[in-house]
Amino acid sequence: MRYAPKIALALASLAIGIALCELALSFLHPQLFRRPPVWRYDPELGWSHIPDRVGRLITPEFDVEMRINSIGLRDREFADAKAAGVRRVALFGDSFVEGWGVPIEAAVSRQLEACLRREGAAVEAANFGVAGYGTDQALLFFEQQGPRFKADEVVLFFYGNDLWNNASRRGIGAERGFKPYFRVRSNGQLALAGVPVKESSFWRQPADALPLAVRLERYFSQHWHLYRLVQKAWQPEVPRGQQQDFYAGLYGAEARFAPAWELTGRILSAFKHSVERHGARLTVVYVPSIVQVEEDNWRAKRELYGLIGEFDLSKPNAKLAGFAEEYGFKLIDLLDEFREKAQTQTLYWRDSHWNEAGHALAAEQLCTHLRKP
Fold this sequence. Notes:
Layout: H1 4-28, E1 39-42, E2 46-49, E3 54-58, E4 63-67, E5 87-92, H2 95-98, H3 108-118, E6 123-127, H4 135-149, E7 153-159, H5 162-167, E8 181-184, E9 190-193, H6 201-204, H7 212-223, H8 225-234, H9 240-251, H10 258-277, E10 281-287, H11 290-293, H12 295-305, H13 315-327, E11 330-333, H14 335-341, H15 356-370
Parallel strand pairs: 5-6, 5-7, 7-10, 10-11
Antiparallel strand pairs: 1-2, 3-4, 8-9
């Protein structure tokens, strides 16, 4: 028993040390990443928003509310009937449209609506963005929900990783579930596959049904900065070969990635035809990646991932421009405006999504292009 006081003192010192480290990290270098429970398995789309659900998205950079309306949009409620004289704009895409990391009032959809209204237009702009969606899921989502909104304009946002989303049978971001996908037939037509979507364990098991060890691990990783820091240090790195393929497909000259681009072009064409069948007009917006806008970020990634070969950072822009000419849709390329503004202003979170300034710039440019019906 003579060691009991020393053991107690040591334990108390350890607890105080952990508490001080936790406090310091929370203020100086936050580590937490917590997804709100606002997404669910969807047999037609892979995943979708849960209607009328509210939660908070927390990362080391931001803490924002995610509030879903009654039809599954991160937006306010909209009347089923469109009021006379009102022009409706529906925005489709992934987390950039959804507004990852910004309050809904700062998202591109709301800022676009406000800009058009300042110009005197009677406009309603709705946010149909869902994190992790590729062009294929956005197309299916439009066909499921878009016509109910009776949009006059449909604005589809294209971000580089949509190329890989379109080519994949599973989500490639935070969503790890299966998804629907298209393949190009020999006659050039699209064939939908993977539906009904298989439900993966990522969505199947409710949190309270998980083993105790898993629940404890999840709790500590979502609530303790020090635990999350240690956890990240032990996480395996993404294989360099995978990173090489990701960037080579987007910006390299290798012919083996041509089928993914062809598939994406076919899906964009199908999107245009679907929108026009429902009496609306399609505009595609190219969302520039942070490596295209910030030269230092591209240099850092090349060094970090050991990327080799020649890269043309304007390749996605040229591909989209070619698709726009071939398939006859309007394209708005935001790259030049973002490069210019980035000389004096930070437009991205470090996780590569737009911050509030990025959303504001995108909305300003779209407002200019969409001002006239």
